[in-house]
């Protein structure tokens, strides 16, 4: 391949690394063209799956700061460049690999960070973004409801205390009147006894 053509391929791979939310490196040895086409379709819209030359991909990876991908670039390599949600693409690759064990995930780059094969597989087990956001919103609403209850509790306690004091006040009024009557009677008896 002429040098100018190689430079163009390196530039294209570099651009793909930069514009993708994730890139998953795989070994495709033994898969048919029909199976690779099926994998490409399962990745979703905007994503692509391309067979790459290892030496050119190493140069492109170095240009974007992923020189640590070099050990993964041996043997027949194809890269899934993911434009959308990396979780959905990782699930598609995992599911395809289950039915086609010849596809081997080597590792990749997710959100600008180099990851191993185990992390790509773990990413496939994460729930979709929409589900996680819904759970987060539900948790926040639950906490807001609890907070509202906590803020409302002192007010209701004060109201109950005021009602209890108000109920107790008339009851105390009759008790204190009886006590005052008893005290007055005792004072009158003392006064009568002292005059005698």
Structure description:
The chain is of the alpha+beta class and 196 residues long. It has 6 helices and 5 strands, in the order H-E-H-E-H-E-H-E-E-H-H. A 5-stranded antiparallel sheet has the order 2-3-1-4-5. The protein starts with a helix and ends with a helix.
- Range of strand content: 5-15%
User: What is the H/E string?
Assistant: HEHEHEHEEHH
Q: Let me know the average pLDDT.
A: 78
What is the CA–CA distance across the termini? 138 Å
Give me the secondary-structure category. alpha+beta
Please give the order of strands in the largest beta sheet.
Answer: 2-3-1-4-5
How many whole angstroms does the radius of gyration measure?
A: 39 Å
Helix content range: 55-70%
Number of helical elements: 6
Number of strands: 5
Shape: elongated
Uncertain residue ranges:
none
What's the main sheet like?
Answer: 5 strands, antiparallel
